Amino acid sequence: MKLTRTTQESRxxxxxxxxxRANTGLPFFDHMLATFLxxxxxxxxxEGKGDLKHHTMEDVAxxxxxxxxxxxxxxxxRYGERVIPMDDALVQSVLDLGGRPFFVGKLPGRLYTHWxxxxxxxxxxxxxxxxxxxxxxxxITEAAFKATGMALGxxxxxxxxxxxxxxxxxxxxx
Length: 174
Fold this sequence. Notes:
The chain is α/β, with parallel strands linked by helices. The chain has a single domain (2-156), classed as Ribosomal Protein S5, domain 2 (2-Layer Sandwich), CATH 3.30.230. Helices cover 39% and strands 29% of the residues. It has four helices and eight strands, in the order βββαβαβββαβα. It has helices at 27-40, 53-71, 110-123, 137-156, and strands spanning 2-6, 10-16, 21-23, 44-50, 79-86, 89-96, 102-105, 126-133. A four-stranded mixed sheet has the order 1-2-4-3. The protein has a four-stranded mixed sheet with strand order 5-6-8-7. Strand 7 (102-105), helix 3 (110-123) and strand 8 (126-133) form a beta-alpha-beta unit. Helix 1 packs parallel to helix 4 and helix 2 packs parallel to helix 3. The protein is globular. The mean pLDDT is 94.
């Protein structure tokens, strides 16, 4: 699958690949994205450019979130949770891929908080992100990407059955 989002502000492409990689022209962000993908077990490439850092980051979150939503199997485990330590930082990520977009959390950088909110909205998942400890912004941010990646990988695992008392949800348009 390949998904591209094009606006006047950015062009972002997410596609299946042989390994997790990101190239947005923002080195630290690329490192966070590659870490997220690796910890989620997603062999995905992200390519993109934008006019501003904010637009690039937001549009990557929206495109990757939509990609995850489309790639989520109906029989996924659905829930995932991880707590990751990174030196002084301790971050917990809990998510539900049940199709109900919601985000609560706060990271030391507003752009990264916004990234996770935009990702959760586009992926139509519930995501709770808690910084339990830490003072180093880099460590907190990286622990958040690792924890959420691992929680996502856990939630995406195929259980062989629809994990909901509602059964499979179907939409009908006319």
